[in-house]
Amino acid sequence: MTMGPSVLVAGGANLDIKCRADGPVVMRTSNPGTATVACGGVARNVAEHLAGRGAAVRLLTVLGEDAAGERIWRETQAAGVDMSLCLRAALPTGSYTAVLDHEGELVVAVAAMHILDALDTAAIAAREEAVLEAAFIVADANLSPPALARLARLAGAHGRPLALEPVSVAKAARLAPILAAGVPVALMTPNRDELAALAGLPVDGEAALAAATRTLHRRGVHRLAVGLGAHGVFLSTAEGETALLPAPAAGRARDVTGAGDAALAGTVFGLLSGWDFTTAACEGQRMAAAVVTGRDEAVQEEFAR
Known about the structure:
By secondary structure, this protein is α/β, with parallel strands linked by helices. Helices cover 38% and strands 25% of the residues. It has helices spanning 42-52, 67-78, 121-125, 128-133, 145-157, 169-172, 176-180, 192-199, 206-218, 259-272, 277-292, 296-304; strands at 4-10, 14-21, 33-40, 55-60, 62-64, 87-89, 95-100, 106-112, 136-140, 162-165, 185-188, 221-227, 233-237, 242-245. The protein has an eight-stranded mixed beta sheet with strand order 4-1-9-10-11-12-13-14, sandwiched between helices. The longest helix is centred in the C-terminal third of the chain and has 16 residues, at 277-292. The radius of gyration is 18 Å and the shape is globular.
């Protein structure tokens, strides 16, 4: 497989514990179902998807000195991701525990990611050379606000395009200092609720959606890919271009966990490849559909051909 332009991906790497109910979820009681454990984390997932497409990827994260950390290191490195920038800490490796309903839709999740506080501004500064060497920087809001701000400033100082993933409504606020400072952001990928939190505006219709995206464009975000779930993704640029990409007809959903990470990776890969924003986002949607329907292995085989 030919290696393409390099990407530095910074943020969460953890074990995903996914519990799926056999039938409709009944709250506040035990539900029969199944459980799986696998490597996950937004940044780690993005890095693995990019490596699968042939990009040279370096992951900047923190792993614990425990069995979970060893497993993530080993499996992610085996997937083609450069793990040399990762920190190790005498703390439990991060975990993400999700409860899915019988249709694969998320009911609730708990992210135990406190270990990422060890990736502080000093650790970011010590890896400035990696920022300089990268063709694209991707960061998720699992990082602390100071770490995110430091990484964004370094990307801006070296003229490297920066993509930001808000992760959740609660963590989207961590991106506020970057937006307030007007640091250039090449791409941001919020969902509708995260966009509302970032813009400080309700997003309850097409007009409101457009108004919220314009607010973020004025704060330095060049491209926005707003996830709308089954309705696809709304694209907007600082030049005033907009488009609505419908979700691809991917068949019955098995699991929505990680679909947004695949969409981000596909979009970044497209931009790295010199594709226009719409084409890049279409690739992101295709990769997300493969995750949702459980066709990851087939997609990886397709990439290798």
